[in-house]
Structure formats: C-alpha cells, structure tokens
C-alpha cells in the first residue's frame, strides 16, 4: 500500500513545483548528452520507449520528456513512445490536460505518441526490454510502505533540522532504522524493475530530493509544519494524537545511499553501469526572489504553497474525518505561513538534489 495518495490536485502541484523543476534541471543535461550513446538501429520498426516515473500532474515531467524527445528526434527516425506514470491515485485528468492543452498535443515533434501508466515505481510498470530511457524526478523518496513503527515526537523519520529546536521534538536512531531499511528495500526494488524494463544500452536517470553533510531538503519545511501542528496542540485546537499519528513516510537519501545498491549488490551491478552521480544544493525560485527583494510575505506565501503541494494529502489523512477538515487544514497552513513571516532564519530551506545516470548493461 503506497504511503501517499499523491500531490495536491487540480493544478496546485503544477503551480507550486518550481523548486522540483530547478532540482531536475541540474541533471537533465546528462541524459540529453547520453542520447547519442543509445543503441538506435535504423531498420528496427519497434518504437523507442521513454518513461517517466512519478510524473504527478505532469508539467515538470512533460517539460523533461519533451526535451529528451527533441534530442531523440535528431538521433533516430523511429517512432517515440513517451509514457508518464504515477500511482493510480494521481490526478491523471490533469496530466492528460497538460498533454493536450486546449485539445491540441503539447508534444509537437514528429511521430511521437504519449500515454499514461498507473502503478508503483517499486514494481514493474511496462513489458520487459520495452524502454530505451527511464527517468524519475523528486519521487522515489516517498516510501512504498509505512513501517509499522511510530514516530511520536516528530512528523518525519529524518528528524528535525538543526535551526529549529523545540522541546520534546526528536527522532532517535532506533526510531529511524525501520524507515531507512524500507528506503533501502524500495531502492533495490526500483532498480530491479528498471533493469527488467530497459533494453541493453538503455539509460536510467534517477533524481530525488535528498541530503548532504550540511543540509537536508527536509530541514525547515518539516520543522515549520511540525511547529504549526504543535501550536494547534498547545492551544487546544488539535489533539496530541493527531501529532503522534502524523508521519510523512519519506526518506531523504545522500547520493552515496542512492548509488549504493548498484555498487553493493552483485546482481544489480551486473545489470547497470554507473556513469555519473552528484549532489547539488540547488537555487530555488522562492529563495532567489527573497534574496533579491527581501520580501518576507512573498517568500512565506510561495514557500507555503510549495510545501502544501506535497504535504496536504498525507496531513489530511492524519486528521479526523469531519466536515471541518478543510478548515483545519487551512488554519494549519495559515500558521505555517505566519511562522515563516515571523522567523525566516528558523526555517531556512536548501534543496539538496541527488542524482545518478546509469546504463543498462
Ligand atoms: C513531488 S511529486 C514529483 C512530480 C514530478 N516528477 C516533479 O519532479 O515535479 C512526487 C510524485 O511521486 C509520486 N509517487 C509517490 N510514491 C510513488 C510510487 N510508489 N510510485 C510511483 N509514484 C509515486 C507521487 O504520487 C507524486 O506524483
């Protein structure tokens, strides 16, 4: 049972995912350059398959695959299949609306066909050896299953950030361990599924939010959300049980963790050659604008929209199912925004984007 029902729908994720676009942009050129190495025999009538995994509403996924398709169009005259996949709970209506804005195709290169696939990143999505390229951006940190282990004193297995200490808020190494093991298992399953789906010589570009030895993408964001929920507990508008139940089953990997299965598991090492890997502290539009303008309110508004897009579905599931749920959500995100305005330094945000390019042997 996947641990998220997806992003905030109806175009909200698309409108608030400039940070994710910046994070994937760091790595997309690697794949564009690698198109020249693909095995693209001219006489083969089979289409060239390209699939993105965890595409959400599609704006960023379409941007990425369209760039890849343009490179492919120069490299081969074969038909192209661009596939967009996500969990079955994703807003696929919005994805198709993005693929056909105003009823006409967004992808305009010749002989390119688009489609959508529902399923989990951690299992098989398409037939064997049917892809030349697979990509995933900002998705595989969401765990496949929530471990049967509570986190009563924080809302994320990674623990609070160093700039936002609060009495009683913590995650111990023992509490984190089941989530780390789930993340390891997920990553192994992800690579094994892609090994089956890619043709020999095919390329896999993996990028996800992560952490390095200075920052974690979780710092600031989950601190302000935790603080906002705890404020509600302190003033009696929320039950302490809501905080104790609330867990974002998301793991933020280092780049070493991202590539470890390829280096450590003989079967995966036999399937993939690791071409490049890196970790970047990526400039994010709302931080760049804040540095230029000093406008706290604008920064807080954009920061809140950004975090709301990927936290609301999980937060809503932890709240009591009542007609007042929408109001409660609204007031939590209002508190988030106010806290950001009041104390930007406590919730400083860095997007650590980790990525790797692999070739199927
Ligand atoms: C933050 S969005 C990223 C969307 C897009 N790739 C981007 O970079 O903007 C994460 C996406 O991963 C999807 N996701 C989470 N767990 C998944 C799983 N097990 N399999 C496939 N997709 C998953 C979510 O539904 C969501 O659409």
UniProtKB/TrEMBL annotation:
* Gene Ontology biological-process entries: methylation
Which positions carry the signal peptide feature in this UniProt record?
none
- Keyword Isomerase assigned to the entry: answer is no
Q: Does the keyword Magnesium apply?
A: yes
Q: Which domain of life is it from?
A: Bacteria
Q: Which InterPro entries match?
A: MeTrfase_7 (IPR005299), MeTrfase_capping (IPR042086), SAM-dependent_MTases_sf (IPR029063)
Q: Which GO terms describe its molecular function?
A: metal ion binding; methyltransferase activity
Pfam annotation, one family: Methyltransf_7
Per UniProt, the keywords (alphabetical) are:
Magnesium, Metal-binding, Methyltransferase, Transferase
Q: Which PANTHER family match?
A: S-ADENOSYL-L-METHIONINE:CARBOXYL METHYLTRANSFERASE FAMILY PROTEIN (PTHR31009)
* Protein name per Swiss-Prot or TrEMBL: SAM dependent carboxyl methyltransferase
Q: What organism, scientifically named, is this protein from?
A: Posidoniimonas corsicana
